[in-house]
C-alpha cells in the first residue's frame, strides 16, 4: 500500500535546507556518468573527515545515533521517498546533529554522485528483501548493487548488513561470495551473540520483540 503523502511536505522539505541533497539528473540511464554530477562532499560538510553511508535510512533512527557516536565522521544517508526522508532530516535538525546529510534518490545512481573510493563503510539495515525471485535485482545485495559499492568503497572499506529475513540473508551471502567480497563476523542470532555496540533500529526492535533472530554480516573486498 502506498504511503499517504504528508501534509505540507514541500514546505517541510524546504525547511530542512541543506540537510537533504537531491540526486536528480537529466539522464535516466544510471550507467551513464558525468563528472559534473559528482558532489564535493568535503565542501558539503566543511571538512575532510572520513565518510560512511547508510542506504535505506528510513526515519533516521540508526544514522542519528551513529553520528552522535562518531562525531568526527561524516555520514550520508540515502532514502528514495521524500515522505520518509523528511522525518529523518527533521530529527537531525531537532537533535542538533551536524555530521549527517541525507540524499533523496535511487541507490542505483549513487556512484553518479559520490566520488569513487570515498566511503569507508556502507550500512544496509533491514533492506526490503523483495521475496519474489522476479524482483531479485531490486535487492540491495544483488550483484548489480555490489558492483556500485565496489566503486564507492575506499581501500579497506566494508559493508555491514543486518536483516530479519533468513532467505534474504542467504541470498546476500551468495551474492557477496560470487562478486569478489570476503565475509567475516557472520551472526545468525545477533542479539544472543555477545556483539557489542549494536545500534538497534526501529524495525530491529520490532522483530526482536517477536522472538525473531537478527542476522548480521560484514563484507569486504577481497584482494
From TrEMBL:
Pfam families: Methyltransf_4. GO terms for molecular function: tRNA (guanine(46)-N7)-methyltransferase activity. It is an enzyme of class 2 (transferase). InterPro entries: SAM-dependent_MTases_sf (IPR029063), tRNA_(Gua-N-7)_MeTrfase_Trmb (IPR003358), tRNA_methyltr_TrmB_bact (IPR055361). Gene3D superfamilies: Vaccinia Virus protein VP39. Its EC number is 2.1.1.33. GO terms for cellular component: tRNA methyltransferase complex. It catalyses: guanosine(46) in tRNA + S-adenosyl-L-methionine = N(7)-methylguanosine(46) in tRNA + S-adenosyl-L-homocysteine. Keywords: Methyltransferase, S-adenosyl-L-methionine, Transferase, tRNA processing. HAMAP family: tRNA_methyltr_TrmB. Belongs to the class I-like SAM-binding methyltransferase superfamily. TrmB family. This is tRNA (guanine-N(7)-)-methyltransferase. It comes from Ruminococcus albus.
Amino acid at each position: 500500500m502506498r504511503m499517504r503523502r504528508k501534509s505540507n511536505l514541500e514546505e517541510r522539505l524546504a525547511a530542512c535546507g541543506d540537510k537533504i541533497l537531491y540526486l536528480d539528473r537529466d539522464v535516466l540511464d544510471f550507467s551513464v556518468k558525468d563528472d559534473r554530477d559528482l558532489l564535493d562532499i568535503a565542501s558539503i560538510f566543511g571538512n575532510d573527515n572520513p565518510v560512511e553511508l547508510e542506504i535505506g535510512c528510513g526515519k533516521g533512527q540508526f544514522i542519528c545515533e551513529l553520528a552522535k557516536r562518531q562525531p568526527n565522521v561524516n555520514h550520508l544517508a540515502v532514502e528514495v521517498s521524500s515522505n520518509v526522508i523528511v522525518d529523518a532530516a527533521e530529527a537531525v535538525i531537532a537533535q542538533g546533529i551536524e555530521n549527517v546529510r541525507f540524499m533523496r534518490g535511487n541507490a542505483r545512481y549513487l556512484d553518479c554522485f559520490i566520488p569513487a573510493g570515498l566511503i569507508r563503510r556502507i550500512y544496509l539495515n533491514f533492506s526490503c528483501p523483495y521475496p519474489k525471485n522476479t524482483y531479485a535485482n531490486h535487492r540491495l545485495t544483488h550483484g548489480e548493487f555490489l558492483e556500485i559499492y565496489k566503486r564507492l568503497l575506499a581501500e579497506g572499506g566494508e559493508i555491514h548488513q543486518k536483516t530479519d529475513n533468513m532467505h534474504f540473508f542467504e541470498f546476500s551471502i551468495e551474492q557477496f561470495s560470487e562478486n569478489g567480497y570476503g565475509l567475516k563476523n557472520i551472526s545468525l542470532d545477533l542479539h544472543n551473540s555477545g556483539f557489542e555496540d549494536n545500534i538497534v533500529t526501529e524495525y530491529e526492535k520490532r522483530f526482536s520483540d517477536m522472538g525473531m533472530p537478527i542476522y548480521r554480516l560484514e563484507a569486504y573486498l577481497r584482494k
